[in-house]
Amino acid sequence: MRNMTILVVDDDPVIRRMLEKRLEKAGYEVLIAEDGYQARKILPQQHIDVVLTDLMMPGSIGGIEVLDIAKNISQNIEVILITAHSSIDTAVEAMKKGAADYLEKPINFDELFLRLEKIANVQSIMRNAQDLSQAMDTTESAAALTIQNLEIRTAELQSRIESIEAILRDEQNPPYERIYKVLDLLTDPQ
Amino acid sequence: MLKISPDELKLVAQYIHDISGIYLDQSKSYLFETRLGSIATEHGCNTYKELYQKAKTEPSKTIERKIIDAISTNETLFFRDKGPFELLQHKLLPELIDARTPGSPALKTNIKIWSAASSTGQELYSIAIIIKELIPNISKYNIKLLGTDISDGAVAQASRGKYNKFEMERGLPGDKLQRYFTMFGDSWTIKDEIRAMVQFRKLNLMLPFAGLGKFDIIFCRNVAIYFTLPDRQKLFNKIADSLADDGYLIIGSTESLTGICPRFIPKRHLRSIFYQKK
């Protein structure tokens, strides 16, 4: 399984440093943003699997706004919010807007790693499903082209056979003329 | 997982064919086991024969419905395979509107479209979205969009118009997603303006369906592949009866009607094929 890249967004330098250390130790690629504004800059420039963001940050870009920005870039970016107990209602609102989960402060790292593991599993299943459907699409469009050509060609030949039958059965014309007409039709390159 | 015996395979395959028309390859016993095993356990059956007998005799048909839901394939996407939808938008609908618009402006234009194996509804909703975008003065039209499927579960999900993120994953461009769906958590629900345009109901394509009336366009994609050749012949013959004389039939991109229904002729438009009656 490929290592996930996690963007940590928190204005508290102590928490930032702690998250960075623990996540790197656990084998994740970690990017750091000191606030929502930095996150807004980093998000479109890097491939990010998970955003771990504080809900309350100074300025007009808080955790909810970071969530919106991330989901706008790709629905595949999962966002986990870190909240104080008092702001759980806001966190639930965030879940409705597509956040994967929220964690209460102080952060329980076992809980955090379990959530990340779950996200990694889902993402790997998603990728697998995408690969399979990609392969199916390729096979299907190649097969479709062949079948369509055969379908049209068969219909053309069928209609030619019907014309030939009509000519051969047409008793208004003498037999040799019918044969010439049929030969004309058969040498027609269409 | 409950194991299925060769005798049971034969029995169950025949039963599934009888109730749904779906022909399952008896060499794929795992398919029966993975899809029906949990239904058997759930209803306290120790063998598939027991399940079969219970399903057949049970008056409420609950088990029969569960078996159909489990056995029918519902892999489908919004705008699955772009070809048919481009065909609809750029050729079939404009032609149909020309042909059906009445002389008097007081009269409405009637258009009837049927998605014959609508699964969880993505195909019919995609059609509705195209119509919504193509026809600005929609009040001048009387448009009937019908989706039918053999699976109750699929019909119920289609009617709810609610999809999870996996089901939304491919096919739907971002602008259409924002415009026609409402997000709630990880799921997306089709907006009422589109939902109100369509209707879903249960139908077994093996049974007569002339009662549905005549349609201008019929989508019957990737369902006949699960039927035997004689069943396919019967199906497309009935579809020909249900299609307006100048109507259009669209089948799956890897399907063919050669040797199945001589009443249809294939026509090519760009990278797609559609069928009309001779």
Descriptive account of the structure:
The complex is a heterodimer of chains A (190) and B (278). Chain A is an alpha/beta fold. Chain A has 2 domains: 5-107, Response regulator (Rossmann fold), CATH 3.40.50.2300; 136-187. Chain A is built from 6 helices and 5 strands; from the N terminus they run E-H-E-H-E-H-E-H-E-H-H. Chain A has helices spanning 13-25, 36-42, 63-73, 88-96, 109-169, 175-187, and strands at residues 5-9, 29-33, 50-54, 78-83, 101-104. Chain A has a 5-stranded parallel sheet, sandwiched between helices. The model of chain A has no long low-confidence stretch (mean pLDDT 92). By secondary structure, chain B is an alpha/beta fold. Chain B folds into 2 domains: 6-71, no CATH class; 82-277, Rossmann fold. Helices cover 43% and strands 21% of the residues of chain B. Chain B is built from 11 helices and 10 strands. Chain B has helices at 6-20, 29-42, 48-57, 62-71, 82-100, 122-134, 152-160, 165-168, 174-180, 192-195, 229-242; strands at residues 109-115, 141-149, 162-164, 181-184, 187-190, 198-202, 215-220, 243-251, 264-269, 272-277. Chain B has a 5-stranded parallel sheet with strand order 6-2-1-7-8. A 3-stranded antiparallel sheet of chain B has the order 3-5-4. Chain B has a two-stranded antiparallel sheet with strand order 9-10. The mean pLDDT of chain B is 93.
